[in-house]
Amino acid sequence: MTDVADTTRWGAKAASLYDGAYAARYRSHDESLVESAAYGAFVVWLQQVCGMWPSPFDALDLGCGTGRYFCALRGVRTLIGFDASSDMLAQARHPLHEDRITAGAITLVHGDLMEQDFGAERFDLVYSIGVLAEHVPLRPALVASVARWLRPGGRFALSTVHPESPSVPRTRTSPGLRTTRPAAATRRTTSRRSGPTGTRASSTTAGTCIASRRSSGRSSSGSSRRTRS
Fold this sequence. Notes:
Blueprint: E1 2-3, H1 9-17, H2 20-30, H3 37-50, E2 57-62, E3 76-83, H4 86-92, E4 105-110, E5 123-128, H5 140-149, E6 150-159, H6 168-171, E7 190-193, E8 200-203, E9 208-213, E10 219-221
Helix pairs in contact: 2-4
């Protein structure tokens, strides 16, 4: 597990909040997710995202926690699970449905998302469920960093916070970003400009979003859910 020393206010807060006792409870709760419709919907959605590549690809899970979504991935060659809590990552060494994980290799990285740099064109897929705009601010600078980490044709798939969540006033920092109300994930998507110049995002009332990076450095949108889920 890789460590980084520098932490921002958000990273330090997350690291202290998700301590060993919390991480153990969180991992124990993972076992009950088999009966959860919300978890099942996220698994299906993530598998649909994985189906966008015809060959093995490299992925990054931003805010992976205990690794509860590792088992949902298909066709992944290498996976990096990134989190601000070393205790959550310790639990991610043996995640939910470990026997169903098909990723060729998994590396767990401990650090602060607001300071982390993975380098240019490192991943085909960057995904984040139940973290951005809830536990960590979803800022244009972060979106720009993800765009740089993605290879041409890569995708950024994320869930968005429920608009009535009490965390919205604390983490929503840009007027160019908006939340969407929950509904069936199959509803029609609409494209819109968002974030840094040249990027595009699409959303549905389900609250998930997928943005793709074109070879020109611009992003195009795909389909678009809430929650830490």
